[in-house]
Amino acid sequence: MTLRYLVPIAAFAILIPVFIIGLQRDPSELPSPFIGMPAPAFSLPSLEDPALTVSNDDYAGQLALVNVWATWCVGCRHEHDFLLTLAARQDIPIYGLNWRDDRDAALLWLRQLGDPYAASAYDADGKVGIDWGVYGAPETFLIGPDGTVLHKHLSPLTEEIWQRDFVPKIEAVRGN
Amino acid sequence: MRIIVVALLVLVAPCALAIDAGRAFEDPELQARYEEIISEVRCLQCQNESLKDSNAFLATDLRREIRRLLTEGKSNAEIYDFLVQRYGEFALYRPRMGGKTLLLWLAPLLLLVAGAAVAVRVVRRRMTLPLDDDTDGETDDDSRVHVADRP
To answer: A125-143 pLDDT, tens per residue?
Structure first.
């Protein structure tokens, strides 16, 4: 007889945490299939000088951030100050992937707001964006020295997010 | 009145063409496959629209890539692979069976089996109960029946 009451209570007790976790997750944040996988190779003209190329070879062998940005992206404007702060620490190089943007507008943005990027690749038609599974901006990838994607972040970066999600992963790599 | 209707139709007509600005394939078979694929793939930017219905720029880009892959002679499966590799199974409205999506596909069946098991148990138990489940036989209804039955 007790089983008869325990079963629904147990089922309820299992469902509640499932719902609590489910409600707190943002359905628009998709897990990247690239985590733990090699980051897709790319080679694009540099934003500053179309004659130069920016590719994944530029940061091979070191930890790096790849930050997807565009001038039409409001979130990118929000995180720009933090990117400048981060760049000033000279802890980890930030590579920009200027995604589906206008070159002149992007250059003006960097001139007016400051340029946190070691280099910015110019992905005018969004093809590299697709290869990287980008579906919005800003997106920030943490790339390990061996070229694997260690982490992907989907909203404007802040110091808090940086300390919480990026620093432990960076320290784990440097600790070894 | 008729003029207003005609004017409205003329205004609305371009909308039918607005979403997919790309040119149709010469080969009707390729065009059919293209349309099938873009209605099966989610636009990641506006997640409740298919690539076919979405005019978000990511959808435009993805349609362009799908066109390119079709022109290169890729099969539907290869094109779905291309998208899943980059965006995960979530990109497909009907995720393929296997691995992580196995539970998703089997859940309805499992729930049906569990429900059937509960139903069978309940029915079985009811069948073994005495038909007259009123053991003391002292309620009003019961006594009335007994009175009526008496010769």
So the answer is: 999 999 999 998 999 999 9
Tell me, what's the pLDDT at B133?
A: 58
The mean predicted confidence, pLDDT, of chain A is 93
CA proximity to B149, closest of B100, B77, B137: B137
Q: Is the peptide bond before B95 cis (omega within 30 degrees of 0)?
A: no
Instruction: For residue B61, give the chain A residue with the closest CA.
Output: A126
Of A89, A62, A78, A42, the C-alpha closest to A147 is: A62
Condensed to tens digits (0 to 9), the pLDDT of residues B84-133 reads 999 988 899 988 887 778 888 899 999 999 999 999 999 998 888 776 65
E-state strands within A40-162: 43-45, 53-55, 64-69, 94-99, 119-123, 139-143, 149-153
DSSP type of residue B42: B
| A contacts of B62 (beta carbons < 8 Å) | 130
Return the structure tokens found at B113: 């089996």
Which CATH entry fits the domain spanning B2-96: 1.10.443.10, 1.10.8.640, 1.20.272.10, 3.10.20.90? 1.10.8.640
CB contact under 8 A, B61 and A125: yes
- Interface check A126 vs B, CB under 8 A: yes
For residue B103, the chain A residues in CB contact (below 8 A) are none
Residue boundaries of the structural domains of chain B: 2-96, 101-149
- For residue B143, the model assigns a pLDDT of 47
Q: What would the mean pLDDT of B36-60 be, rounded to a whole number? A: 89
